Amino acid sequence: MSKKIEIYDTTLRDGSQAEEISFSVEDKLRITEKLDELGVHYIEGGWPGSNPKDAEYFKKARKLNLKNAIITAFGSTQRPKVHVEEDSNIKSLIESQARVITIFGKSWDFHVREALRIPLESNLVLIHNSVSYLKKFAEMVFFDAEHFFDGYKHNPEFAVRCLKAAESAGADRIILCDTNGGSMPNQILEICNKIKQEIKVPLGIHCHNDSECAVANSIIAVEAGAIQVQGTINGIGERCGNANLCSVIPNLQIKFGFDCITPQQLMKLRDVSRYVNEIANLRHFKRQPFVGDSAFAHKGGIHVSAIRRHSATYEHIKPELVGNSQRVLVSDLAGRSNILRKAEEFGIQLKPDSHELQGILDKLKELEHQGFQFEGADASFELLLKKELGIYRRFFDLIGFRVIAEKRQEKESPFTEATIMVKVGKVTEHTASTGNGPVNALDNALRKALEKFYPQLKSVKLHDYKVRVLTAGKGTSAKVRVLIESGDEKSRWGTVGVSENIIEASWQALVDSIEYKLLKGGE
Fold first, then answer.
1. Are residues 204 and 158 in the same domain?
2. CA dist 360 → 77, 155, 207, 376, 472 (Å)
């Protein structure tokens, strides 16, 4: 039986520390559910003692019906000169009610002297007291040895004593951290081999990518005996990022034969990668290994000729293993498997040799050329499939709308009003509504017009709204993509719109959201 490796995802904490990334509570909940589908074992939800948003996340996360993952709370050891029972950070970790708590502590004597400014022996007490106290309130306590590899290089005796303090206190996992991301694979291997002779508690690895070695360092630590790998989706994180789980997982599982997640879950890797990027409002990195658009793309000449005979000639794995697909550029063969897979998810019968499939593929290519992306917008894609297959029902027709934004005085907030006229069957409805912005006003007006015909729309809420500029260099005339997240008491769904006019793009996404709810109303 292959060795089981625990996957510990810290996208919601470490990943959110990346420049230009800010997850809302709803963002974090959606990503949590997606990571659970991927089959990760632990999801670090955040630091409940650091801000109200993370505290709110833990309250709402308790209601999630997770099937694979355990949510962990992150924090530090107790502060110097504060009793562990009275430390606000420790209290917040307990109040999160997380089943697993992860705390970090100093393991580099330089940090103890310069950052904490306490004697080295006092740091050992902080570690021991914090772990032993938290063990009373959580099923498991993990200890992250911050700056461990740098600490070991400078003072190996003290660094090991920090680990032993956590071990004697009952830590369930001890994580060796390359916090500055400057260690080389040979150093990681040498140090991990020494530590496993000293520490009997199962070890984990947490690497940053400042030397572009985080993935390699994580893999070599597992080879040296670590049973847990910490990282983030797409490697997002502070400075140069963290170990990229989208590379770590398939390398460990496919290349080394370790047991990380199931093969079926591994096939969701690309979808999860793109989903997180969409929620984070990041552009997809085309050349990202395993999950990028170009990871298995081939263009002309000898390569195309060879892969048509046998894909292994220019592909190191079968792309389907990670949910990707082979692409022959300037070809109508790419993308069929993805469409068939999504149709199956939606319960839509679509045969590989059907003429409808080619029509859907052509439509998809046309929309992608315009700037549409359906990752994070499954509802819009399901509507597209049903429209192309003739199994779509139209619930209303737009006659027209108008949006007015007016600012009457410098110190007053703008006033926004939307007027809309729609036709439902033979009945024309003309309504107006205000909002805190043009999109909100338009959304309110549309609902007001339709709710008397479709009262189920009263349960729909707009949870999130994101805009991305698609055509750089065109200033305010650039094309934009709008991604909207909506939901009711049972589920959430994403929709998308694209236009040079942000109101028009928003309208497309809003209409898809309403129509998706109505289409699902009878199911």
1. yes
2. 55, 62, 43, 19, 29
Same domain, 214 and 150: yes
Residues of the chain above pLDDT 90, percent: 70
The model carries a pTM of 0.72
Q: Are both 374 and 414 inside the same structural domain?
A: no
Q: Number of H helices and number of E strands within the chain?
A: 18, 16
Supply the Cα-derived Rg of the chain in whole angstroms.
Answer: 26
Domain match, 75 and 218 both = yes
434 falls within a domain = yes
Q: Which long-range contacts (CB under 8 A, 24 or more apart) does 110-113 make?
A: 110/150, 110/151, 110/154, 111/146, 111/147, 111/151
- Pick the closest to residue 261 from 6, 32, 39 (CA basis): 39
Residue 274: C-alpha distances to residues 92, 234, 279, 375, 477 (Å): 32, 9, 9, 6, 27
Q: How many CB atoms lie within 10 A of CB 189?
A: 15
- Taking all residues of the chain, what is their mean pLDDT, rounded to a whole number? 91
User: Could you report the per-residue pLDDT of 293-339, keeping only the tens digit for each?
Assistant: 888 877 555 555 566 667 777 789 999 999 998 765 533 344 566 67
Both 212 and 308 in one domain: the answer is no
Domain annotation covers residue 125: yes
Interval 30-56 mean pLDDT: 94
